[in-house]
Amino acid sequence: MEIVVCVKPVPDAETRLRASADGRTLDPEAVKFVLAGYDESAVEQALLLKEAVPGSKVHAVAYGPAPRTEEVLRSAIALGCDQATWVDAGGDATGDPIVAARALAGVVAGAPHDLVLCGKQAGDDESGTVAAALGALLGVPDFSCVVDLRWDPATSRFRFQRPVEAGLESWTAPTPIVVGLQQAWNDPRTAKLPAILKSRKATIARAAAAPPPRAYGTPERFELPPPRTGAKMIEYRTPQEAAEKLVRILREEAKVFP
Amino acid sequence: MSAGVLVVGEFADGHLGGATLEAIGVARSLGGPVAGYVAGAGARSAAADFGRYGVATAYAVEDPQLDRAPAGARTPSLRAAAEAAGATVVLVAGSTLGRDLVGRLAIEWDAASATGVTELAWADGALRVRRPIFGGRATETRRLEGERRVVAIRPHAFPAPPEAATPGTVHELPSGAVAPALLAPERTGVAAAARGSGPGLTDASIVVSGGRGVRSPENFHLVEELAASLGAAVGASRAVTDAGWRPTSFQVGQTGRAVSPQLYIAVGISGAIQHIVGMISSRVIVAINSDASAPIFRVADYGIVGDLFQILPALTAEVRRVRGMPAA
Ligand SMILES: Cc1cc2nc3c(=O)[nH]c(=O)nc-3n(C[C@H](O)[C@H](O)[C@H](O)COP(=O)(O)OP(=O)(O)OC[C@H]3O[C@@H](n4cnc5c(N)ncnc54)[C@H](O)[C@@H]3O)c2cc1C
Ligand SMILES: Nc1ncnc2c1ncn2[C@@H]1O[C@H](COP(=O)(O)O)[C@@H](O)[C@H]1O
Fold first, then answer.
1. What is the ipTM of this complex?
2. Which ligand is nearest to the CA of B287?
């Protein structure tokens, strides 16, 4: 099975966020970019399927600027991906998911793909748009929020589930499909040191992104919330007093009480 | 500037759901004509509901096949409805279906898009949206360029509109030219969510979650009783779902559900980052934990340091008292 996994370099969860000088976007200086969140699960899922289906290959693809995008692809290779393509974003700083999807589709359309795996949503913009947009651009069905994705060799179909508002849906689908993955069967693995060292020398193919046909979203302002100063602690002598004070606050101060 | 807005409705038991009502409220607040769209088995009668909320024109695609097909099967009829309604904005709820439609429609209808939106307004002919990003650690404002936009609003970020009984017209539309590839996948079943009698986790305006501090499945009734007194949904940390005390459908966090209720109460939950990302965008967060240094207190608005086995019964009793419910 030919598996493409799309990974986006996103700031490490521990990174302190800061607005850029013009106040429009995140300041990428001093930010450590990593392979994280749902994309880690997507890579794990790709590797699990590769192990389960003999003869499979995993191709990691990422759209973004130098050098962070190549670095994230090296982490994907260190984890066990066979091949990687960097789609150079050049000066695109719109952070628009449709621009990213178009750039990714330019590469994925020309590469073998029985399965295109994305994260359910990227750890930074959390738009959850790219998988569905890729599906439309490739002319392939797409499914978001997928869990427990398996390949059934007897029927040559994928089997998977989706926790949706009404409950848990079960699906089967033939190749190819695009998936926005919520969870792999296992927790993401960590790369071993020899594999990390080897990945530093791996070849990363570079593709230029075709310029988008038009402008989609323009970032105007990036704001940080006033820092959460920690909880206002409720002082009390008895559990009853704690309960009374909390209920009063929730009704009168926070106004969230029904 | 104002332009037509088409609201994509979702319904259950023949009626439009809460998230759709929020979208209708937003659409009405934008000014300009509003129309509705619903698809699937029962769409014709659910479409009549739009009139109850002041939307006079609705488009219904009565095709049970759409219920069993991926979201993309709806885009041909959705585009036809947008065209017929003269809409340049399509608004969807922040549900799984809504999210799937955004990316698909953005490409097929050549629209600019945004999801998880908490504010939107016209600005010099463009739609300007505001949305939390980075798990609520930042907020961005974007201008959506061009003549068409598709926007998913964030659940619970907007009030439902008052009822405004308007005599409505329902127009029926065919599914249109659905690409055969979209009909190859097959939905083989839907298991109703294990949600007890309360609201679903992602729709609830109050969520009470229990963690490992609850110690055993037998003690979980303490969490459930507090939730019941508040009319809240019950959630859990992964420690609880991994131990099998509650099904995984209860899990809040990175690998579970992301929730953004008005009020989130974390009980006996330490506040690991993977849990935090699933609840940080709640409006008000309360933590109850016996360890004053638990990281959950750094993200909570209000904290009680104490033994949940003492605090929860007192809290449930107090909530029942002020809500005029009989003592349990
Ligand atoms: C890839 C990955 C994904 C993950 N995804 C998720 C996820 O989606 N959701 C999630 O929740 N976790 C997730 N986790 C797990 C997460 O890291 C934590 O292990 C988990 O959230 C801990 O659950 P907890 O807070 O209930 O338990 P603990 O961390 O053990 O905390 C229990 C808390 O209860 C308190 N306590 C004990 N007794 C009492 C008492 N009598 N009264 C009051 N308080 C008491 C303790 O002080 C403690 O703070 C994930 C981990 C990984 C590696
Ligand atoms: N720039 C990118 N490069 C590679 N993959 C991406 C990129 N942006 C988004 N994706 C993929 O699409 C998923 C959803 O992203 P988003 O729609 O931005 O929330 C991510 O988890 C990735 O798998």
1. 0.85
2. 1
